[in-house]
Description:
By secondary structure, the protein is mainly alpha-helical.
Amino acid sequence: MYLPHFVERQSRYLFAPFGITEETVKYVEIRWAGRDPHSCLESFLVLHRVSIFKNRAPSMINARTRFASALFTVLVAAAGLEGRPTENGVFDTQIQPLLEQYCINCHGGEKVKGEVDFTEIVRSQDIDSRFELWETVADVLASNEMPPEEEDNRPDPTETQQILDWYEERFVNSVEARPGTFQARRLSANEYRNTLRSLFGFELENQIIAAEQTFVEKSLVIKLLPTDPPGPSEFVNDTSDARLSSFIWEQYAYMADRALQELFSKERSDVLETLVGQPLPHYSESIKLTPAQAESLLRSFAPRALRRPIARKELERMLASLMGLKGGELLRATRDEMKALLVSPSFLYRGLLIEATPGKQQLVDSYELAERLSYFLWEDMPDTQLFEAAARGDLEHADEIAKQVDRMLASPLARNLAESFGHQWLGLADIDNARDDVLSRQALRSQPFDFLNYLFTENRPVIELIDSNVAFASHNTASFYPENNHQLEKYVRPKGIERKLVPNQRMSLDPPEGRGGILTMPGILAMNRGPILRGTWMLRRILGERLGEPPADIPPVEAAAPNVDFSFRERFEVHRSDSTCARCHDRIDPLGFALQMYDDEGSYKLALDYKPPRRRAGHDDDPDRIDTAGHLPDGEAFQNFDELKSILLGSKRRDIIRNAVERTLAYALCRKLEAFDRPTIDAITEKIDETNGTWRDLFVEVSQSLPFRETFIAPNPQTNS
Length: 721
């Protein structure tokens, strides 16, 4: 379907280094002719299952896995083709010369200030791919922040307006909504773990000391698979460019073996009976299957592994491999077929079996939509109800999508949305560095997840992220809520050395105690110690503003001389007197200093029972010395955090909602947002803002949006040549 012509030419190159015979090359080339490369690779893996999976010579195993990895890389890359070209006439003749004249000197070549490199734009064939950067450019030009006033070479007002007019026309007024170009995506480590667990009905666990199970990750999958790095979208499910190395391939093959070994064990006979669809005979030593049971198992397992109905010819080929076999041979052949599915690209990748016409923008099929919904809201494969809805074609209707979203949010699996999406969006990994004590660290870490899960699943307004009278705490975090912790159930500490992580309990903040919403959670404050980190976190994570990295040569804030009674804020004002620093810190500092009534541990300094920790150089623990007043770059002033929160809920409300929309859409689409996504972002933001929409409303709008329900497959270069 998407096979470019170079794959055939590369086949001998891929096969030759690993001792594959010329006959095999010819066979595969014949099989590839006119067929989807991904289904062909499946067939190849099954054909060579004995040599790949059962040859115990280490050198041969390594060669085979490297071969499989290379073949995967080529074939999967073949599915993700380039998007549509853009016309750059006005940009080339009018805008590019201005950028080269006024901007490249500081933002190009070896000098790249603020992580803004204009050479990436002026040399790009598709300038729309950096629309976020263009937004930043338009903002600093409109506010006259760039180029700096001390620069002699500055554009005149006419030239500045020319760039702004081009930006408005290119990225605001004339852009049309369309879906992104199809990209195959490998399952992330968490998606793979959850999918394998749902497919088999059990978790692959490590054999570890029972006493450590409270704190140690028990999943074998998480232990063996490396953590996926964030993609361009800043989310780890953005895996379209993730390479499948030979190491990871070996881990997949090993875990497939482990899963099948456990499935066919006496301990999992109930799971196997469920997959077979009929009772199995009692046995003493080993599992036995009749030919009818083996066929029933493959008919049940294959479509669930592929997350859509299996092609009739492929199923017939699988069943043909079992013909005439009995006893142990039948069992081994059945396991081999199941393993071939588990290491096939159709299982390990999302979207490879999508039905679409190259060169055409169109709705994705029902099974692809079911897959998108399940990995968006659950980080897991579709369940039976989603499969059935897809089979009936119900997901083609927007109201059915809304019903499925409601059902899925009511499932315990929706917790994955808070723990995966929320964790990455808010950068909560740093909470793990907030405390040395394991129990305290885990308690602080779980608070934001519990809160987000409450917002997501109980239909709470999006803006309640900032201001809420609901909090979650346990005895490990009760000290942060001295006037409300009486709502918590009494905790009886067990005798001996046993220690347990106690789940958080929900409580109402009455009185508020300086808490409420994500900004004042102890773990959030503790992982962002000091005004700079807190202000930066709020700007980036909550308001969605983009900041470059600080210069490497900026010295730290020095402690005041012993005889100089400067507050920390006064010392900092001196520190950032440089105009280059002030340009960013004018946005960062007011937000961060508004939170100075919280200490480095996240405790509220104005609480009646506040006991300051050991004094640190450069910090003020005396509440009388706290200065939380400030003003934003647009002139809005506040005296304390409560007044700042009023501004956030007022004039900054739309910015907060828009950022939530952008983050959610990027996570759902598993890709970086582009210029053509802007109409979708604008429409959802306006609707949520005007109706005080909830997180459920946001998830429904994203799931019903054009980029989520449609796709574009680039034309096959072979057919266009």
